[in-house]
Design brief:
7-stranded mixed beta sheet, single chain, alpha/beta, 2 domains, Rossmann fold, 245 residues, 8 helices, Methyltransferase
Length: 245
């Protein structure tokens, strides 16, 4: 799972015993060499799907990390691409490794739960960050996204189908979440990283509650399961001309 350029076991252990912010500050120089970075196959699939919907004007990458999602924005946005993250080191690595071309990119340090923007964006994307938010935080997070989009603006992110109960992936994810709960019960500060609670039904209900209209786009590059359902979807939530509740 890790390349030779990735973090050592000791470095991962130190990160796991830190806060989320400090942990990612420590991991930043080697983050792109870990499986935590969103794979290019997913980024390319989302960029292709958004290209069929767009183009867009200004875009925001929520919890941008080292900026892989910013490359998606710069491919589909004409005016500006902004990355926001609360890890100073992740932002610094992103600035250093930013690719040339496309609209100008800007990097902003901020908490996604308190975004320092008005309704100026046409598109918000996010990749792999939702496990760092507790279920009770989702309504506030989605309300923040709603508030920075112009009417008609879109919030888009990939969402993979959950592993089949009893499969290897199911037990691996269950074991990971259980280990994180034990860690957080025994150690402070907590490190929030739970991916199983972020399910389509819950996510869709919370998005609609704050004023989004939700559509699902199958990412056919990843195929379909035995029952015909997509292995991976792109969720597209559109801000309607009504205020968030």
């Amino acid at each position: 799972m890790f390349t030779a350029q990735g973090p050592t076991f000791r470095e991962l252990a130190v990160q796991a015993l830190s806060s989320v912010e400090h942990g990612y500050d420590l991991l930043a120089p080697k983050f792109d060499h870990t499986p935590f970075r969103t794979p290019d196959t997913v980024l390319d699939a989302v960029a292709g799907a958004l290209g069929r919907i767009g183009p867009f004007g200004r875009g925001l990458d929520l919890c941008c990390g080292t900026g892989a999602g910013l490359d998606v924005l710069r491919a589909v946005c004409r005016e500006q691409a902004v990355g926001v993250d609360f890890s100073t080191a992740m932002l610094a690595v992103g600035r250093e490794r930013a690719r040339p071309g496309g609209p100008p990119a800007h990097w902003v340090r901020a908490d996604a739960r308190r975004l320092p923007f008005g309704p100026v964006f046409d598109l918000v994307v996010s990749f792999g960050a939702f496990g760092h938010f507790l279920p009770r935080e989702l309504p506030g997070l989605f309300a923040q996204v709603h508030g920075v989009l112009r009417p008609g603006g879109r919030f888009a992110f990939p969402l993979t189908a959950p592993a089949r109960p009893g499969s290897g992936g199911y037990w691996a994810m269950l074991g990971f979440d259980a280990a994180m709960r034990v860690r957080n019960a025994l150690w402070r500060p907590p490190f929030v990283m739970y991916y199983r609670p972020f399910r389509l039904g819950t996510v869709r209900a919370e998005l609609e509650r704050v004023g989004f209209a939700v559509q699902l786009h199958a990412l056919e590059e990843f195929g379909r399961r035995d029952d015909g359902s997509p292995r991976c979807r792109m969720v597209v939530a559109t801000r309607e001309d009504t205020p968030a509740r």
